[in-house]
Structure formats: C-alpha cells, structure tokens
Amino acid sequence: QVLWQHQREQQHQEQQQALWQQQREQQQLAAGCVPTREPGQQAGLDLMGSLGTNWADSVLTVGSAGHWAGACNPCAFHHKGGCQSGRDCQFCHLCGPGEKRRRKKERRAICPSSVMRAW
User: Fold this and answer.
1) How far apart are CA 82 and CA 9, in angstroms?
2) What is the pLDDT of residues 22-76, one digit of tens each?
3) HSE value, Cβ hemisphere, 13 Å, CA-based, for 45
4) SS3 letters across 24-82
5) Is the pTM of this model over 0.85?
6) Cα–Cα distance between 90 and 92 in angstroms, integer?
C-alpha cells in the first residue's frame, strides 16, 4: 500500500506540473508578454518546490497551480472576506491582496498595446 500511495503522489505531482506549464503558456500567449519575476522570487520557487506535494495538496486551489511559475490569476474574493469556491476556485489564493493591481500595472508598462481602454 505504501508503494501504491507513492505512485499516486508521483502521478499527482506530474499532473500538477503539466497543468502549471499549460496555464503559463496560455497566459503568455494571451498577454503577448513573458511575465517578469521580482528579485528573490526564484529563491521562493526553490523553497516551495522543496516542501513537496503534501504541502501543495493542502494549500493550493485549482487556480493556484501556476502560482510559483507566475502563471496564475489572483482571486478577487480570497482577501476580501473569503472565497466561496474553496479548493475548486479557478483563481489563486496564494497571491497577496495587492497582486492583481500590481500585475495590471506591470502589464500596462510592458505591453501598453494589450490594454483595452474605454472610450
């Protein structure tokens, strides 16, 4: 049974990594830009990767899958009283409360042509 559980965890980790990669590629194509990383963010990626899948299973939502690769969309409700979707939320619960605004500002600075403006 231990071997079966290990195989199941390994399969889950491989599926999670494939999902992260797919989400990152889709967002890069949609934005027409490559996301940039803040200084020290790579160290955070390395640390989180070393924690293993048990930590990820207990914290990540469906939408948080691409968080460490910078390929997630922050949940607008998580930091404002709570998200009702729980683990099935399509948006990231790991991003900080100001992350959505920071990313929008960054996109405008990097790719001003991709920002639609109201007339």
Assistant:
1) 29
2) 777 766 665 555 444 444 444 444 444 544 554 454 457 888 888 877 788 888 8
3) 14
4) HHHHHHHHCCCCCCCCCHHHHHHHHHHHCHHHHHHHCCHHHCCHHHCCCCECCCCCCCC
5) no
6) 7
